[in-house]
Amino acid sequence: MNHLVLLPIVIPLAGAVVALFLMRAPRWQGVWTLGVMGTAVTASTILLWTVFQTGEPVIFYGGGWEAPFGIALVGDLLGALMALMSQAVLLMGTIYALGATDKNVHYPGFYPLFLMLTTGLTGAFLTGDLFNLFVFAELLVISGTVLTAISDDKLGTEAAYKYFYISLLAAAFLLLANGVLYVSYGTLNMADLAERIAADPTAPLLTTGIALLMATFMIKSAVFPFHFWQPDFHTAAPTAVSAMLSSVVVKLGVYGFMRMTTLLFVEQAALIQTLLVILGIIGIFYGGFSAIGTHNVKRMLAYSTLAQIGFILVGVGWGTPLSLAAALVFTVNHSLIKAAMLMLAGFVASRASVKSAAFAVVTGLGRQLPLAGILFFIGALALAGIPPTNGFISKLLLFNSGVEATQLTVLSLLAVGSLTSLIYTMRAFQRIWWEPPVDTAVTLKPSGDRLIAPGVLIGLTLLLGLWAEPLLQLAESTTLWLGQPELYITAVLNGG
Fold first, then answer.
1. pTM for the whole structure
2. What is the rounded (10 degree) CA torsion for 182, 186, 189, 191?
3. Would residue 492 count as lying in a domain?
4. 495 located within any domain
5. Distance between alpha carbon 434 and the CA centroid of its chain, in Å?
6. Which residues, in sequence order, are CB contacts of 478 under 8 Å at separation 6+?
7. Which domain holds residue 424?
8. Which of 370, 350, 454, 462 is nearest to 96 (CA)?
């Protein structure tokens, strides 16, 4: 059973190696990648179901060396949920890439890199060791950088450089955090580290380690003031890639903040949580107002991610069981919505004679694309938090947690910030599907990207809006687990 936690990582890793031998047959590469991703999602589903049913994490010790001396992979409820969420969306990204008209999806390295990105993100969620978090995060960065650099967009290379160098800064912060925490406590196993920090919270370099980890995860989630790279990067990346980067890859930072406040630094969590609430509110307004004023649909959705991550940070920052459950539900739901919306933006751009998501190009183009308009409208409702979508469930749960925590001032700010989501999404819908074209020279191509993947994702946003109980129950169970860090510590250090 312990190997269950290894499979979601090994399957895409081995799949990437095999995909390299199919480089002369890009179509078969795509079919192979689809099969690999489907298998990986199945393994992640089994892992999550096993952990949920037994109430115990699934732990694998590399080389047979038990923690804290060996490398541990830990599939607890939080890690397994995040891994399944990410791989499910990445599976939809593979389906979108198979039906995309971008030249880059036919490059020999596209699908191997896509599988390596999956490996890095999944490994980051399932590792029980801070140094291996650094290793998996670097694998994620390298894959994402190259996938952006090969974009059909002429600005792809510039965006890739920006992402690489800001990620290099995050890597330096994470490596330094590893160093100062190891010097202070002699371990990087997260369970062992949490136990030692609780026993001695006065180590001179502890505050430095916390600050470095905070900076790392702020960059990973593009939290203010480390947000500036994100709009350019997500706008220029291939649609199949940007939909993944803006929906699930940014959740690595959210995952990091949850581990910091519920496991590693429980006694120091109050200050971290206060900072997260402040940064979350700033992100909501900065991202929302920037999205209103932007000139490109994909760029608008990139700024939207800053705002939506802000809501999640507020939930993590409040730190109550209900607010943490709300943050988890918001994390999963936003991943589905944002991936779908970026795919729809890419679909519209692919039908324009001048392939671009700029409003100057796509305005009025949607009049001849009614099905995409329906899907985009539902996605807009979900981003704004309007029933019957899953976005409504996310915000309702978050607002209820704010009422329970008597955070009325923050709640009023969240309510105002929520209005911006409705403004920029409806503005985009109106311009693309209602207004006359700005440039009459831009015509509609007879074919473009396919709507299968965004259609499935929008279907899930409705399903989870109408039938939210399974996700709510899973989030509640995960929150109860996070509220008892001693169970995680005991399970990892005592051999599961």
1. 0.94
2. -120
3. no
4. no
5. 31
6. 77, 78, 81, 325, 328
7. 2-484
8. 454
